Amino acid sequence: MKxxxxxxxxxxxxxxxxxxxxxxxxxxxxxxLQSLLDPRASDAQRAALSAKLGLDKPLIVQYGIxxxxxxxxxxxxxxxxxxxxxxxxxxxxxxxVVLSIMALLIAILFTLLLGTLAAVKKNxxxxxxxxxLSALGQSFPVFxxxxxxxxxxxxxxxxxxxxxxxxxxxxxxxxxxLGLCVSSSMALVLRNNLLAELESDHVKFAxxxxxxxxxxxxxxALRNSFSTVLSLSAFIFANLITGSIVIESVxxxxxxxxxxxxxxxxxxxxxxxxxxxIFAILIVSLSLLTDILHAALDPRIRLGKEExx
Amino acid sequence: MNRLLWVEDLSGHIDTPKGRLHxxxxxxxxxxxxxxxxxxxxxxxxxxxxxxxxxxxxxxLGFQIDAGAIVFEGEDVLGFNKRRLLHYNGGRVAVxxxxxxxxLDPLFTAESQxxxxxxxxxxxxxxxxxxxxxxxxxKMRIAPEKLKCYPFQLSGGMLQRIVGAAAIACHPKMIIxxxxxxxxxxxxQLQYLKLLRDIQDEYGAAIVFISHDMHAVSxxxxxxxxxxxxxxxxxxxKNGLLRNPRHPYTRALIRSANLSGEVRGKYDTIDGVPPDxxxxxxxCSFADRCPHSMPRCFAETPPKTTRDDHExxxxxxxxDESKT
Lengths: 309, 324
Fold this sequence. Notes:
heterodimer; A: mainly alpha; flat; B: alpha/beta; eight-stranded mixed β-sheet; four-stranded antiparallel β-sheet; about 35% helix; globular
């Protein structure tokens, strides 16, 4: 419990710094008035809009307003459409998050299957095949594989729908593709970790105690190497979410990637800030979740190093 | 006394990128029921590989047996199938590992690993297994609350007692202790050896004690085998070996261990180095370090000769005997 609170405070501190960086970075990206107003607009018009959007106030005051509003759950209104930022994000985010979670779960599943298979069949055919698949998965970018899959399975064979997110079937192609691409690197990491674990003293002693191969592999070796997969998962989920722009354009996916692109192009400060902040909150909570899972899995983290003798 | 384990002419190698390592070159010995049998030798002499072969674990490390037999309670160990092997390991022959600090799974409590071992070999409910685990812990002088701890919360001495408890949990007929005291400090070492001896008396298990430490071996063993370059060069009762060592290597070993504890200006060392395991052994492997070597020693491997249960493999010793 103490551990969870400690991690929670850490997360809050991280979010605070993220908010500063977002706020400054957005403002460094250019002047939003340029894209909102006609180039021939008068200085008075500029000043009026600037005042309306709150851009005339000193930076520190603008930041204060941003943080206090955000703490109350208000991310402001979009400069371009005037609608509340949270509402716009609320429409687009679920599609992206559901897809990312699905891809991640598929990735973890494949990682466990392929990584374990490769480690158990070390240097045999199955291991070689996994190694080749991983190399392929890592060397083809997701969008390339995506375009080919869309062409082949969607356009030519018409097995899967190719654009939108209307039915569960729409999730299959992008979800599996993303999951596979991600698991290609994770499976190798798990394999190597598992191999090291299988040669460790405690696995040797487990075998010499007469434990059967199933206990040795799943109860002792795999559980010890799974923490690596868990750490990678948080990192990969972050990449999936923030990298959604590419995937979403290949699958014409109604998600947040497309929205971010538009917001950045229009220099829609509140919307960009909102999106990045929501990303940050998602990623920080996920890493919090993996930390807590780590602790649940590993007593050394749970009980802290101070008890070590 | 009944013969419990019998190893005859065991030879084996490991293939490495550098070439074939001849690790065991005809190891023969036997362990009687309820005795403490010591195997002593320097690192690389093949003591651990001998133990791992007896446990059938050596093959996992790429060790291939070329010749020889291992018989345990009249059964051919090398012919065991997977199921027999699972019961043999831990159920009939247990191991006390070299490094207790890393030999337990860090993610499970000591208790759960003891219970796991017990339930692997005996039909027990979790509750029964727990009760037995605590009973064994008491025998090994482990405080009950220590069983609730994870390995990283325990000291080296405590962990050594816990792996000891895991070893005796299923009442094995033989316990192989491979340098069990190397990781402990000297005071704890003595305590642990005494504890091992007590447990052995109570459980009636034989102990195979592997060590490079002449002091430790001479303290707890009934019989001692001396290993050199993948062979057992001399094997006798403790007193026979310490008072009347016959093989030149054993003599040198005892001299350098300085068992009498007399104060001298320098420690005795043995000149030269052990033979390269890459070379196929010809003749006596100690010949080029031996002060008594004869031409024959370099050409022919000395056979085992026995007098009053004192076995030795040495041409020079045979010559001495024929004189007397």
